[in-house]
Amino acid sequence: MRGDRSTSTSASASASLPEPSSGTAYRWVVLGIATFTQAAAAFFVQGVGALGLHLQRDLHLSTTQLGLLLSAAQLVPLIGLSAAGALLDRHSERWVVGAGACVVGAGLLVGSAAPGYASLLLVMLVVGAGYSTVQPGGSKSVAAWFAPSRRGLAMGIRQAGLPLGAALASASLPVLAEAYGLRSALVAGGLVALLGAGVFMAFHRRPPHGTTRTGGGPPIPLTTQLRERLRMLREPSMARIMLSGTSLISVQYGVGVLTVLHLHRTASVDADTAAVVLVAAQGAGVAGRICLAAWSDRATSGRYASVRACLVAVTAGTVALMTPLGHSPTAACVVFVGLGFFGLGWYGPWVAYVAESAPPGRTGFALGLAMSVNQIAIVLAPPALGLLIDLTHGFTPAWGVLSALTAAALVLTLDPRSPGHPGSDTQEHASRAQGRPQKYA
Questions:
Q1: Second label for 175, Cα 20 to 30 Å away, from 85, 199, 221, 440?
Q2: pTM over 0.85
Q3: How far is CA 121 from the centre of its chain?
């Protein structure tokens, strides 16, 4: 492929790998490896919630400290995602994503030799640095191979890698930790991440039509990059992206870290059953990312309509957890599975919307920028929710904050005076139907 031969290193690596037989068949291979690498790189971090009781027991952690572990993994991507987006607009996704996944794997393997909470925090920082390239890189690869009319489904499948990795981690890491100790969980996470890196570097290809560019061109000065980021943040269509993204990602990480704890402490569900419910919620998230994204491909009201539906459902679910339903073992389990479908499923159509809103040639930049803003919520939400629970000795205030965030985002994006009103959804749908990306308004 020409796009992967812009340097001598890429050319030598490409020579031994099979070329895509057509511009359509190989896209499913790219989608498969992008999904697998996403699941592999996210495997350990997304399993922290399922390991919550083990971490609290073995390392004597508070709920706040448990939340800080997730925040540590997301701290470096605050800057790293934007940097990764810029790299992805200039270099092959194969090497940028592959190198990042290798950093995740190596960090976990090295960290397994250094026990203790402080060393685990450091490991999570390193993991976050590597993961910065995997999220926007895989999304950009898929966006390049699929036409706008099918991009939502493809993005949904690709983004299902995160809850898929979380479900597998929730099912396996607590068992490993119980049998062999917490170190074994880090080793398993490292090996899985390295496997994902190898698969992506071995099989990734650029599409024959070369929709993305790599290599050449003069470096963009840092001041220019900052001005571009600020200009893009001021664009009207970014309002709905930021409002919905930050509120829903807060719920996603809240569900990931609090499900087992809530069920065990509030609904009196035993630890093993609570872990199974978390696996079920994450499995529902896999289905949600695919189904909601497929719906967004066909929705006459535009792709963002499915994101708005998630805001409604998630608000209802978090409110339900504050009522007596949250204390009923059966009802609480059902609510968490529903939150898994909508509270994790929103990401597929949301990422497709971001990719299609990007200016030509700036898909990686736009994805990196949008995900960087989400990182602020990802870093703040887990420890803030944990601190709230530690201070109030209950989960109701935490669910109340999350429901308020999603309700506010819903109202603001429904306001006809805001840039997220339904009229622009129609314009986006028409733009997608013509097979061209919608630029920022």
A1: 199
A2: no
A3: 20
